[in-house]
UniProtKB/TrEMBL annotation:
Protein EC: 3.6.1.1
Keyword line: Hydrolase, Manganese, Metal-binding
Reported cofactor(s): Mn(2+)
Reactions listed under catalytic activity: diphosphate + H2O = 2 phosphate + H(+)
Keyword set includes Hydrolase: yes
Domain DHHA2: 179-305
Annotated Gene Ontology cellular component terms: cytoplasm
Classification via NCBIfam families: PRK05427.1
MF annotations from Gene Ontology: inorganic diphosphate phosphatase activity; metal ion binding
Enzyme class: hydrolase
UniProt-recorded name of the protein: inorganic diphosphatase
Length: 312
C-alpha cells in the first residue's frame, strides 16, 4: 500500500505542489507514494499546474488506516478529520511546530524557510534525485507564491537559491515575471462569492484553547476590494457566528505597498489590538509591512493569549 502525501485543508500552492513533488521523490527512492489533497484547487495553483503541464492530485478526505506524509503544516486543525486513525510517517513543513502527535517514530524535515517546497528541494538534493522540468516548475511557483516573490519576511537565502536552481531546470529565464503573472491571477476576484474569497486561503489555529480563524488574500492592488469589502466583513462575521471561533481575521495584503489591512471580528477585540499595538476602528486596521500570516500575524496573537492566561 502506498503512503498518501497530503497538505492542509483549504490547500494553497505550497500544499498542492509540495504534495506532488514529495510523492514523486518518494517514488524515486522506492517508497511508493500518491499525492492527494484536502480541498479545491485555488486559481493561482491551477495556473501553476497548467503552466507546467502537471495534473492536480486526487481529492481524498478520509485517511483512516492509511500511511500519511504531511506537507506544509503540523496542526491538528488543518489535518484530515480522521488523522488520529491514520499512521503519520513524516512531516515536511516551514511553520511553527503544531499539535499533531504520533504513536510511532516518523521522518521530519522542518526548516525555518519561506516555503515547504524549499525543504523538499533540499530533500531532492540529499537523496541525489534529479528533478524533472515540470516538477521543478511547480516547486518554483510555490516558492515564489509563499515568499511573495522574495518580499515576505519569511524569505531566506535558501529560498532564493532554490528558486534560481529550479528556474534553470524548468527553463524559466524571468522567474519574477512569472511570479507577477501568478499574483495577477491571484488578484482576480471576478465571479467569486465573498464566502469563497474569505475561504480561499483560510486556516484555523488553536491558540491556548481559543480557536482563531485567519484568512489571507494577496493582491497587487487593494482597490479590487473596494466594492465588496462590506460583503467580506459579513463573510467573516458569518464564519464567527457558525460556531467555535473566538476570532476571525481576514488579511487583505497589498504586495506592492507591502502591508495588510485586517478585517476583524472577535469575542474580545482588545486582545487583537494588544497583539498588533494598534487600535481597530469599525473592525478594520492597516498594518504597514505585514505580509506574512505565519511570522507576523500568528506569533503576536500567541504571545498575547499567553500573557492573558498568565503563561508569560
Amino acid at each position: 500500500m502506498p503512503m498518501y502525501v497530503v497538505g492542509h485543508k483549504i490547500p494553497d500552492s505550497d500544499s498542492i505542489c509540495g504534495a506532488i513533488a514529495l510523492a514523486y521523490l518518494k517514488n524515486q527512492i522506492n517508497e511508493p507514494a500518491v499525492a492527494s489533497r484536502l480541498g479545491n484547487i485555488p486559481p493561482e495553483t491551477a495556473f501553476i499546474l497548467e503552466h507546467f503541464g502537471v495534473d492536480a492530485p486526487e481529492l481524498k478526505l478520509s485517511y483512516a488506516g492509511e500511511e500519511v506524509y504531511i506537507v506544509d503544516h503540523s496542526e491538528l486543525t488543518q489535518a484530515p478529520d480522521d488523522i488520529a486513525q491514520a499512521i503519520i510517517v513524516g512531516i515536511v513543513d516551514h511553520h511553527k511546530l503544531g499539535d499533531l502527535t504520533t504513536a510511532t517514530p516518523l521522518e521530519c524535515w522542518i526548516r525555518p524557510v519561506g516555503c515547504s517546497n524549499t525543504v523538499i528541494k533540499m530533500m531532492f538534493d540529499f537523496f541525489n534525485v534529479v528533478i524533472p522540468k515540470d516538477i521543478a516548475g511547480i516547486m518554483l511557483g510555490a516558492i515564489l507564491s509563499d515568499t511573495i516573490i522574495f518580499k515576505s519576511p519569511t524569505c531566506t537565502t535558501a529560498d532564493i537559491r532554490c528558486v534560481e536552481e529550479l528556474a534553470k531546470i524548468a527553463g524559466i529565464k524571468d522567474f519574477k515575471a512569472l511570479g507577477m503573472e501568478m499574483f495577477m491571477v491571484k488578484s482576480s476576484i471576478a465571479d467569486t462569492s465573498a464566502r469563497d474569497l474569505v475561504m480561499r486561503d483560510f486556516k484555523d489555529f488553536n491558540i491556548n484553547g481559543y480557536f482563531i480563524g485567519i484568512g489571507q488574500l494577496e493582491v497587487v492592488d487593494l482597490s479590487v476590494f473596494d466594492e465588496i469589502k462590506i460583503e467580506l466583513e459579513v463573510g467573516i462575521m458569518t464564519l464567527k457566528n457558525e460556531g467555535y471561533r473566538h476570532s476571525v481575521i481576514l488579511l487583505l495584503t497589498d504586495i506592492i505597498k507591502e502591508g495588510s489591512e485586517l478585517l476583524v471580528v472577535s469575542d474580545d477585540i482588545t486582545i487583537i489590538e494588544r497583539a498588533y499595538g494598534k487600535a481597530i476602528k469599525n473592525g478594520r486596521v492597516w498594518l504597514d509591512g505585514v505580509l506574512s500570516r505565519k511570522k507576523q500575524v500568528v506569533p503576536p496573537l500567541q504571545n498575547t493569549f499567553r500573557i492573558r492566561e498568565g503563561l508569560m
